[in-house]
Specification:
The chain is an alpha+beta fold. It is built from three helices and ten strands; from the N terminus they run αβββββαββββαβ. The strands form two sheets. A seven-stranded antiparallel beta sheet has the order 3-4-5-9-8-7-6, covered by helices on one side. 28% of the residues are buried.
Length: 173
């Protein structure tokens, strides 16, 4: 039996988006701006299209399915994940965006603060408590044209999160 025409069309569109990389963090390409990151000692630069940052050198990058990449420690435990996505409108510069229900079902927001990211229109840092996986922070920044945003989730204590947050840069053009 053939799938309904709408389902077949949606499947074709989704496949095309995945094949063109629209749902994946963009590795450096000549036609996308790629900000340069100078990582501090003990950290490794991550330079993607539109955003760059650094992660602790002892964490290993594991590409994920879809658009999210993960960094794991020597035991294989996820220490961080990052994702660049397309957005339709600018987030507020004065009010943090609501977090996804899947996040707030697992943890409570214990604090938010503006996140200053060179080249970005704005950003916020979210601290969460009560996550079964331990301490958790969400780092969010977006481009001035409001077309792309970066989310970084860090499962670690504040000094490590501070070091990662201080390295985030954005570049629109």
């Amino acid at each position: 039996m053939r799938p309904p025409p709408i389902r077949a069309a949606l499947t074709a569109v989704c496949a095309a988006l995945l094949l063109t990389g629209c749902w994946a963090p963009m590795p450096p390409r000549a036609d996308y701006p790629t900000p340069k990151v100078t990582p501090p000692a003990g950290m490794t630069a991550v330079e993607w299209a539109w955003f760059g940052f650094a992660m602790p050198s002892e964490w290993q990058l594991r590409t994920g399915s879809g658009s999210t990449n993960h960094w794991v420690d020597s035991t294989g435990a996820t220490r961080a994940s990052a994702d660049i996505t397309t957005i339709l409108e600018c987030p507020s510069k004065t009010r943090p965006e609501p977090l996804q229900t899947g996040i707030t079902n697992r943890a409570s927001i214990s604090g938010t603060a503006p996140l200053r990211v060179p080249g970005a229109a704005g950003g916020f840092r979210y601290e969460l408590t009560g996550d079964p996986e331990g301490p958790r922070s969400e780092l969010h920044a977006w481009l001035p044209n409001c077309e792309k945003q970066l989310w970084i989730t860090v499962f670690d204590e504040s000094p490590t999160v501070d070091r990662i947050a201080e390295t985030i840069v954005a570049q629109q053009d």
